[in-house]
């Protein structure tokens, strides 16, 4: 799939309030296709995009840290209150799990936001160098690697922590499902509902953009080592109802 189509689809699959925060890839591509701007002007346009990415990413990251602590506190209180009597607090448990799924989904979307904007910058710089015969991409990407929006370690760690928390506090036995086909069917059915659809789309996009291929280069993101079945099972786990004994 052409990157222009991919980023357009990803913007459509993102949260509405996020859609104007992505790289203006089509506009920049059209600008290069017409008389390419001078390097200083083009760099200024890219710097404005990076400022936009950084401001949005940092704001979301700060909100996630606060929400992370709030959810931890709520889970602790719920576990203390429920004890072994899950049935009495079934509705409250269900609401808690929904909040965690939504939180996890938003964090996955932010990691994907970083990935797709970085990839877009690398691709648009390649087009600019090809059009002008210059060598802007390499030094500019070195600058990008140190930008806040590119540093996803903290958010990625929170994603893994909440997947572990859900396994421990709200376990779902996928092994009882009737094979991969049944898991895929559940995922497909749930994919049209709320943020879950956005999250699945983001996971698929990250997997596609970060796969090893003949076009892999020094400017590519490292491959995302997750199989199709693992992705489906993860998605099923996140969308499944809470099992009550």
UniProtKB/TrEMBL annotation:
Residues 1-142 form the SPX domain. InterPro entries: SPX_dom, SPX_prot. GO terms for biological process: cellular response to phosphate starvation. This is SPX domain. It comes from Arabidopsis thaliana x Arabidopsis arenosa.
């Amino acid at each position: 799939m052409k990157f222009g189509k991919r980023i357009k689809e990803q913007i459509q699959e993102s949260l509405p309030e996020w859609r104007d925060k992505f790289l203006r890839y089509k506009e920049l591509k059209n600008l290069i296709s017409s008389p390419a701007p001078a390097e200083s002007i083009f760099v200024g346009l890219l710097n404005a995009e990076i400022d936009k990415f950084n401001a949005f990413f940092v704001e979301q990251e700060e909100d996630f840290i606060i929400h992370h602590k709030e959810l931890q506190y709520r889970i602790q209180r719920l576990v203390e209150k429920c004890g072994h009597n899950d049935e009495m607090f079934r509705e409250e448990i269900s609401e808690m799990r929904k909040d965690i799924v939504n939180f996890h989904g938003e964090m996955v979307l932010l990691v994907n936001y970083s990935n797709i904007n970085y990839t877009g910058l690398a691709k648009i710089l390649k087009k600019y160098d090809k059009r002008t015969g210059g060598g802007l991409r390499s030094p500019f990407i070195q600058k990008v690697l140190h930008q806040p929006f590119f540093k996803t370690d903290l958010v990625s760690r929170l994603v893994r922590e909440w997947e572990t928390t859900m396994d421990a506090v709200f376990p779902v036995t996928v092994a009882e499902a009737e094979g991969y086909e049944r898991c895929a069917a559940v995922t497909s059915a749930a994919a049209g509902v709320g943020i879950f659809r956005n999250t699945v789309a983001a996971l698929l996009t990250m997997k596609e953009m970060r796969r090893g291929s003949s076009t892999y280069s020094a400017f590519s993101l490292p491959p995302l080592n997750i199989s199709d079945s693992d992705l489906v099972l993860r998605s099923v786990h996140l969308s499944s109802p809470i099992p009550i004994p």
